[in-house]
Amino acid sequence: MILSMIHCIQNVGFIGLGNMGSRMANNLIKAGFNLTVHDKNNDALEMFSQMGVSTKKTPYEVSEASDVVITMLPSSAHVIDVYTGPNGLLHGGKLIRPWLLIDSSTIDPQTSRNLSATISNYILKEKKGDSERPVKLDAPVSGSIIAAEAGTLTFMVGGSEEAFLTAKPLFLSMGKSTIYCGGEGSGSAAKICNNLALAVSMLGISEALALGQSLGVSATTLTNIFNCSSARCWSSDAYNPVPGLMEGVPSSKDYNGGFASKLMAKDLNLAVESAKLAGCKYPLTSQAQKIYTELCNGGHDSKDFSCAFRHFYSGMDEPHDN
Ligand code: NAD
């Protein structure tokens, strides 16, 4: 019998109601799931309480009310705290109610794997079919706050494939695609690789556009060329870093409202650590890490990561009709 026939995914706990999590939780509510939420920030909790959603003061209380728990937290340390800290999800001895724990935070693969191993030692309070033990999926996302709001995220999922298939309706309520990456930790690994490629492409486009401006070719002209040439990429045609060149993107909103440079710096730190552990070369990751660390230290930590164009390369704004 497959898990979906046995396991309920209707009662969903959600922990971490920040920029991404609040929007993901909203989409689950819209899709008809029965939510119980927690965040250490009372304002975030209050917002959901006013919408009639059940709120809890601790992760453990969420765990007690849910069949599935999703976490969307800033970093590995926060995830470890929510799982294993006092009144954490795993607080109740070796017994646990949720059969499935999904962590969508961007964290290092090693921590993901360690948590999966810890959880595999727990026992379900109520046996479900043949299975007695809970499972964990690492399911980080690609896509900005805009994608979280629109329900168009991409999920990269590591862990049991059977659990992944059962949880698919949850993922597809928050995203447009969901890709199974392999065993425990492989979703986290995929996410780190995606963001390392993104950081390098954003810096490459920014460096080229700033050089073009200095050589007398406008960023608008160069972008037009890139977008029908071999340099075309998401950073040139969907998320251009030059203020005034595209509407609706963070560069045209003083680099507000996107993916913060501090989050990119965090992801690059994870990529460097993973490359060291794997014995791989990482010269571009290392250089990108230095640039984003410098941007953060220079006070641009909360600005969108495309701000490298202005604040690292000193690129210039271009009027929309240039
Ligand atoms: P955020 O800082 O806006 O939200 C995190 C939330 O977690 C906050 O509400 C905070 O109060 C809560 N929190 C922190 N520690 C907690 C604890 N111990 N107990 C309960 N709640 C706790 O972060 P975000 O932008 O929503 O990002 C969340 C994750 O998603 C990160 O791992 C990030 O790298 C990843 N991500 C972000 C984006 C983006 O564009 N922002 C895109 C893709 C992936």
From TrEMBL:
Chief localization? mitochondrion
Pathway assigned in UniProt: Amino-acid degradation; L-valine degradation
Which GO molecular function entries does the Swiss-Prot or TrEMBL record give? 3-hydroxyisobutyrate dehydrogenase activity; NAD binding; NADP binding
Catalyses: 3-hydroxy-2-methylpropanoate + NAD(+) = 2-methyl-3-oxopropanoate + NADH + H(+)
Domain 6-phosphogluconate dehydrogenase NADP-binding: where? Answer: 11-182
Give the Enzyme Commission number.
1.1.1.31
State the superkingdom: Eukaryota
PANTHER family referenced in this protein's UniProt entry, alphabetically: 3-HYDROXYISOBUTYRATE DEHYDROGENASE, MITOCHONDRIAL (PTHR22981:SF7), 3-HYDROXYISOBUTYRATE DEHYDROGENASE-RELATED (PTHR22981)
A biological process (GO) of this protein is: L-valine catabolic process
Localisation per UniProt entry: Mitochondrion
The record's annotation in InterPro entries points to: 3-OH-isobutyrate_DH-rel_CS (IPR002204), 6-PGluconate_DH-like_C_sf (IPR008927), 6PGD_dom2 (IPR013328), 6PGDH_NADP-bd (IPR006115), HIBADH (IPR011548), HIBADH-like_NADP-bd (IPR029154), HIBADH-related (IPR015815), NAD(P)-bd_dom_sf (IPR036291)
Report the residue ranges that make up the 3-hydroxyisobutyrate dehydrogenase-like NAD-binding domain in this protein.
185-310
Keyword terms: Branched-chain amino acid catabolism, Mitochondrion, NAD, Oxidoreductase, Transit peptide
How is this protein named in the record? 3-hydroxyisobutyrate dehydrogenase
One GO cellular component term, please give it: mitochondrion
